[in-house]
Specification:
With 118 residues, this protein is an alpha/beta fold. 35% of the residues lie in helices and 25% in strands. The protein has a single domain, classed as STAS domain (Transcription Regulator spoIIAA).
């Protein structure tokens, strides 16, 4: 399951994923990251997206293939913060989305603080 919203006050895109994703849901998630980062960048000059994957766990191999983050975050200052549920999911996420503009967190407060930094 996937849901996304945009917080215009904070200029941050918010995505929540739950459970194992299908290929179609994973593609929708990537599209949402791209779209929300663009919307945030248009508003604030920096694309900021928070992906809460803490209820999704480790994904299947068909979903967890390395992805070129440049297709998601086109601005050099854009950021994607991902909340994970544990060590295995964190390792998988770092392998799939390996880029200095992507960081994993255990807590939403830490993720938002990182996204908001100048």
């Amino acid at each position: 399951m996937l849901s996304s919203t945009y917080d215009a006050t904070a200029a941050i895109g918010l995505i929540k994923v739950q459970g194992l994703l299908t290929v179609e849901e994973a593609e929708r998630c990537l599209a949402a990251i791209r779209d929300l980062a663009g919307r945030s960048r248009d508003q604030s000059g920096v694309g900021r997206v928070l992906l809460d994957a803490s209820d999704s766990g480790v994904q299947l191999g068909t979903i967890a293939t390395p992805y070129d983050v440049r297709d998601l975050l086109s601005g050099e200052r854009d950021r994607l913060a991902i909340i994970t549920s544990g060590a295995l999911q964190t390792l998988q996420t770092r392998r799939v989305l390996s880029d200095a503009r992507v960081e994993t967190f255990a807590a939403e407060d830490d993720a938002l603080q990182w996204l908001r930094r100048p």
